[in-house]
Each structure stands twice: as structure tokens, then as C-alpha cells.
Amino acid sequence: MQEDKAAMREDEASMTNDFSKLKVPHVLTVAGSDSGAGAGIQADLKACAARGVYCSTVITAVTAQNTVGVQGVNIVPEEFVAEQLKSVLSDMRVDVVKTGMLPSIGIVKVLLESLKEFPVRALVVDPVMVSTSGDVLAGPSILTGLREELLPLADIVTPNLKEAAALLGGKQLETVADMRSAAKLIHNMGPRNVLVKGGDLPASVDAIDIFFDGDDFYELRSSRIETRNTHGTGCTLASCIAAELAKGSPVLLAVKVAKCFVETALDYSKDIVIGNGPQGPFDHLLRLKNNAHNCYRHGVFNPSDLFLYAVTDSGMNKRWGRSIMDAVKAAIEGGATIVQLREKDAETRDFLEAAKACLAICRSNGVPLLINDRIDVALACDADGMHVGQSDMPARVVRTLLGPEKIIGVSCKTPEQAQRAWIDGANYIGCGGVYSTNTKANNPTVGLDGLKTVCLASKLPVVAIGGIGVSNACSVMEIGVPNLKGVAVVSALFDRECVLTETQKLHAVLTEATSIVR
Ligand SMILES: Cc1ncc(COP(=O)(O)OP(=O)(O)O)c(N)n1
Ligand SMILES: Cc1nc(C(=O)O)sc1CCOP(=O)(O)O
Ligand SMILES: [Mg+2]
């Protein structure tokens, strides 16, 4: 035991003294600034942040740019590029340098000098020449410097079709076979690996890139995402590759991870609208989409949403031959004011797909959607919140993971549990079983008295649950405690032939009951 403690102390001591153990992977991007923040330095910063890597920046040019095109370029004097390089490289232990827009041969030279003075573990060269809008960002004058001096130092170079053609003297690339030959010819210029990006290849269903390591060719495919929001994909891909290399990944794996990241981000943000031009930016942090389409306002939980709380059950919907989406649509049309997906038997992937589809339905109707039990699904689809019970993940942990704006509900049968839910940062509690139910096995009932006791002790709004339907909802609401805001029901809506009719009936009963109570 004593020996164990000594070993632990020794470990702790060495951890505090050995700074390499605390080192953060670090990419330095040497590129141009894009005022629209879709590409360039701004894309690089976001990509590295998304991949969990520190990113420092040396700015080679400031561009006035938006989703329409490039309105102006102001090249940073090469002496000042040199000064930025020295500031970062002399101090900050950079792992990987990634280059983007290098607008003059002078700047290429300055970079070469700096890399000689401060060698780094890897160099990723994105040979940016023309923007997605077709504007020239680096003219032919830098081609010789790139070809003869920078590429031989590169661990990987990532030209698109036009850039590969420019590097090779202008020969157009039109087929995958052309891409392979181009990769080989560019490899002859000295970089250790070449990735020719075929995003612009005509008549191809997938986005095909060719990776060549000097020995083998790899055809890397990802789905082509139909979206206008592709501005900055090249910068992002190169930065992600740099980020993965900085973490210690082998080159081919880094490329695969980066491609997958870009594909996911494009898919995630395919419908967002930023700017009026033909080429929009995308969302590196995968957070904008749902907010952009969100009729339900984040961060404003309204207790009256608990009025008619529809809780789904995959078994019941299956039995009645309907999808979860159809069930949710009908419940909302009938007057449900909040929806919880409680899919105990669903496969994770099916659950996530259904959750995304239901979220779109709920969002377009301004109805919050919560997920029962599964924080992974709630996070992955960016649901409006979660409902957890006493044996699920504690509400305080859920709060930490979901953040301050999401809705969290906790099942409580006692005043102590209600008090705890409040301390843990929940927004509401579900109290039950008020009556016995076939939906949840071995569920002790609390009755109307138990419900009233919990409501009186709770600082949070309450929704009653368990065996509630059209015949007894009125009695539940009639207990007359102001923080009892509604009823949560499963079988009364979903173990019935017509969800729409049953929801309408329950809505009418609740409206009647609450008008009497008021
Ligand atoms: C609104 C509402 N109240 C209570 C529950 C029950 O949650 P829990 O106790 O975690 O049991 P399961 O639903 O997970 O079986 C609920 N789902 N919703
Ligand atoms: C999911 C659930 N939780 C309960 C609790 O007491 O916390 S009772 C219950 C089942 C509710 O289904 P039905 O409306 O079909 O009775
Ligand atoms: Mg649960």
C-alpha cells in the first residue's frame, strides 16, 4: 500500500514536471483571411477547434470576400509575414504547419526560410490558387516556388482538379484516370503524399479523391452532398488533415478522418442560409442547423408546454402499423404540446434517424422534442432536451452535458426526489404512476394523494404520468395545485387506432378541466 502511494506520488510529480504530457497538438496555418469567414484562416481555426487541436495563424493576405466572390485582396508585406512566423515558431512548439493562400513568391521564400530555422513535424500544403468563386488568389508567379521549393518539403499536398492542372502546366483533368496520372506527376515534384481532390469531377455520383503515397493509389469516396454551402471545403480538409497529423495520426488515416469530417459538416449544414451569393459557408461545429430552423425557442422553457405531453412507444406504434413520425405528426395535430421519444427497443441507428425526422416535425410546429434515457441520441440530434428517471444518468450530469439551454425532466415519486431534481438543475418533474399502468412494468403507484404531496413539495412544474387518459385526466387536474401543469400519456394516445382523434379528445378534456380549476 505504502509502495503504491509512493508510486502514485512519483507519477504525479513526473506529470507536473514533464510538460510533454500536457502538450496540446498545435497546427500553425499560414494563409489568407476571408472576411466572410467561410474559408482561409477563419475556416482553419474552426476546423482545428472542431478537431480538438490548437491553431495559431500567420496571415499572408487580407481578402474582402463574401458568398458572392472576392471583392479585394490586400497582401501582407513579406517582412511582416516573416515577423508573424518568427513570433509563433520561436515560442509555441508547433507540430504541423499548414499552408493555404501564399500570394507572392516573396512570401513563399519567407516561409521556406522560417521552416529551415524552425523545423516542424509535418507540412501540409494546400496549393490555393483560385477561390471557389473563380477569383485568382495566387498567380502563376508562385508556381515555380511551389513546385521546386515548397512541395519537396511537404508531407502531403492537396490540390483540387484546377490546382493540379495548374501545377502540371495547365492540362485539364477530366477522369479518375487523369487524377491518378496527375497524382503521380505531382508526387515526382517531391511531396511524400498527394491527394488530388475530385469534388469538381463532372458526372460522378460520389466525391472521389485520389491519394498516392508513392507506392499505392487509394480511391477515397464520400457521398456528394447537394448543397450551395461548399465555400471553404478545401481549407477545412487540409486543416483537418493537419490537425490529425498533429495528434500523431498516420497520413492516410488523417485524410480519411478529414474527408469524413467535411462530408458530415456539409451534410449537417446543407440547408443553412448565410449570405445571398451562390456559394455559402458551412458549419464546422455542427450547431447552426437546428437553431436556424428552430421555431421552438431555445433556453425558454415554458411550463405550459407540459399541458398535453405525448410519450411515444415503439411497440405500440408497430402494433398499430404506423411509424414514429406518423404517430408524432398525428399527436401534434391533435394538440400535443410536448413530445418525448421513449423508444426502449429501438436500434440506436434507427432511433437516431427517427429522432432527427421527429425533430424536424416538432420544430416546424414549435413543439419541443425530448428524448427518454438516451443522452447519446439527444446530443446527436440536438433534441430540445431529455427525460430521465431515478436510475438513469443523474440530472446534474445531463445538465452538464446538454448545457444550460436544454429542457431536462426527472421522474419523481417523493418530495425528496423533487427537491434533488431542482438542485440538479432540472426544468420540470414527472410524477407517477398516478394510476397503475401496463406500459411500465412494476411501477409503484402514488395515487392522487402522492401526486399532490409531491406537487406541493416541488419548486418545479409537474406533469402527472401513469394510467392517465380521457376518463380520468379531469380528476388528476382537479387536485388543484398550481404547479401541476398537465398530463403525460402513452397508451391513451398511441395504443389506439387513431392517434389524432384520441389526442383531440384528451385535449378537450384537459381544456375543460383546467378551465374549471381556474
Ligand atoms: C414525463 C415523464 N415522466 C416520467 C417518465 C418515466 O421515466 P423513467 O422513470 O426514467 O422511466 P422510463 O420512462 O425510462 O421507463 C417519463 N418517461 N416521462
Ligand atoms: C413511462 C412511465 N413512467 C411512469 C412513472 O410513474 O414515472 S408511468 C409510465 C407509463 C405511462 O404510460 P401510460 O400513459 O400508458 O400509462
Ligand atoms: Mg428512464
Automatic annotation (TrEMBL):
Q: Localized where? A: Plastid, Chloroplast
InterPro entries associated with the record: Aldolase_TIM, HMP/HMP-P_kinase_dom, PM/HMP-P_kinase-1, Ribokinase-like, ThiamineP_synth_sf, ThiamineP_synth_TenI, TMP_synthase
PANTHER family found in the cross-reference section: HYDROXYMETHYLPYRIMIDINE_PHOSPHOMETHYLPYRIMIDINE KINASE THI20-RELATED, PHOSPHOMETHYLPYRIMIDINE KINASE
Q: What is this protein called?
A: Thiamine phosphate synthase
Role, per record: Essential for thiamine biosynthesis. Bifunctional enzyme that catalyzes the phosphorylation of hydroxymethylpyrimidine phosphate (HMP-P) to HMP-PP and condenses 4-methyl-5-(beta-hydroxyethyl)thiazole monophosphate (THZ-P) and 2-methyl-4-amino-5-hydroxymethyl pyrimidine pyrophosphate (HMP-PP) to form thiamine monophosphate (TMP).
Does the keyword field hold Transport?
Answer: no
Just give the chief location class.
Answer: plastid
**Which Gene Ontology terms cover its molecular function?**
ATP binding; hydroxymethylpyrimidine kinase activity; metal ion binding; phosphomethylpyrimidine kinase activity; thiamine-phosphate diphosphorylase activity
Q: Cofactors per UniProt?
A: Mg(2+)
Q: Name one GO cellular component term.
A: chloroplast
Domain named Pyridoxamine kinase/Phosphomethylpyrimidine kinase is located at 34-278
**Pathway field:** Cofactor biosynthesis; thiamine diphosphate biosynthesis; thiamine phosphate from 4-amino-2-methyl-5-diphosphomethylpyrimidine and 4-methyl-5-(2-phosphoethyl)-thiazole: step 1/1; Cofactor biosynthesis; thiamine diphosphate biosynthesis; 4-amino-2-methyl-5-diphosphomethylpyrimidine from 5-amino-1-(5-phospho-D-ribosyl)imidazole: step 2/3
In terms of domain of life, where is this protein from? Eukaryota
The Thiamine phosphate synthase/TenI domain extends over: 308-493
Q: Which family does it belong to?
A: Belongs to the thiamine-phosphate synthase family.
Q: Report the source organism.
A: Liquidambar formosana
Q: Return one Gene Ontology term, BP aspect.
A: thiamine biosynthetic process
* Reactions that this protein is recorded to catalyse: 2-[(2R,5Z)-2-carboxy-4-methylthiazol-5(2H)-ylidene]ethyl phosphate + 4-amino-2-methyl-5-(diphosphooxymethyl)pyrimidine + 2 H(+) = thiamine phosphate + CO2 + diphosphate; 4-methyl-5-(2-phosphooxyethyl)-thiazole + 4-amino-2-methyl-5-(diphosphooxymethyl)pyrimidine + H(+) = thiamine phosphate + diphosphate; 2-(2-carboxy-4-methylthiazol-5-yl)ethyl phosphate + 4-amino-2-methyl-5-(diphosphooxymethyl)pyrimidine + 2 H(+) = thiamine phosphate + CO2 + diphosphate; 4-amino-5-hydroxymethyl-2-methylpyrimidine + ATP = 4-amino-2-methyl-5-(phosphooxymethyl)pyrimidine + ADP + H(+)
- Provide the alphabetized UniProt keywords: ATP-binding, Chloroplast, Kinase, Magnesium, Metal-binding, Multifunctional enzyme, Nucleotide-binding, Plastid, Thiamine biosynthesis, Transferase, Transit peptide
